[in-house]
Amino acid sequence: MKFVKLLFVFISVAFAVSCSNLKAPEYIGVGKVNVSKIINDSITIKAGLRFNNPNRVGGKIALSDLHAVVNDIDLGDLKNQEVKVPSRKDFEVPLEIKLSYGQIFDSKKGLLNSILSSILTNEVAVKFDGKATFKKFLVKKEYPIQFNDKIKILK
Fold first, then answer.
1. The domain spanning residue 138 has which CATH number?
2. According to the UniProt entry, where is the signal peptide (predicted)?
3. How many domains does the chain have?
C-alpha cells in the first residue's frame, strides 16, 4: 500500500514539474482564408492562425479576447476558439471574422481600398492582440498574444 501511495506522489510531482515550465506556442502565420457566408448586410470570413507547440505535452488551447487589425482597419474581436494541441507539432486555430459592408466599402478607410493598395505594395500589415490559455488536466497557463508584422503577398 505504501508503494502505491509513493508511486502516486512521484507521478503527481513529475506531472506538476513537467507542466510548470510550459512555453508559449509560437505563431507561424495565417493559413487558409476564405469567405464562408454572405448575408444581407455582412460577410463572414474564415481563416486559420498557425502555431507550433514547442512543449513535450499536448493539451487544449483557448484563444480569447483576440482583436484583429489589418492595414490599420479595425476588424474587431474574433470569435473565441478552443482546439486540441499536439505535442511538438504545428497546429491551426480556426478564426471567424464578421465584417459589415461599411467596413469593406467605405471610400476613405474601407477594407476594399486597403486590399487594392496592398496588392500594389505586395504586403499587408496584420496585428493580433489577445490571450491564449493552455490547458492540460488541472494545469492552466495564460500567454499574451501580440503579433504585429507586414506579410508579403505572393503572386
1. 2.60.40
2. 1-16
3. 1
Residues 6 or more apart whose Cβ sits within 8 Å of residue 58: 84, 85, 86, 87, 136
Q: Is the pLDDT of residue 87 over 60?
A: yes
Chain segment 94-138, per-residue pLDDT in tens = 877 777 766 655 655 556 666 666 556 667 677 888 888 888 877
**Degrees, nearest 5: CA angle 52-80-75:** 95
Q: How far apart are CA 142 and CA 134, in angstroms?
A: 6
The verdict on residue 103 lying in a domain is yes
Strands 90-100 and 42-52: antiparallel
Task: Let me know if residue 51 belongs to a domain.
Answer: yes
Residue 3 within any structural domain of the chain? no
pLDDT digits (tens, 9 = 90+) for 6-51: 666 656 655 555 555 778 788 787 777 777 787 877 777 777 888 8
Provide the H-helix boundaries in the chain.
Answer: 2-20, 101-105, 111-121
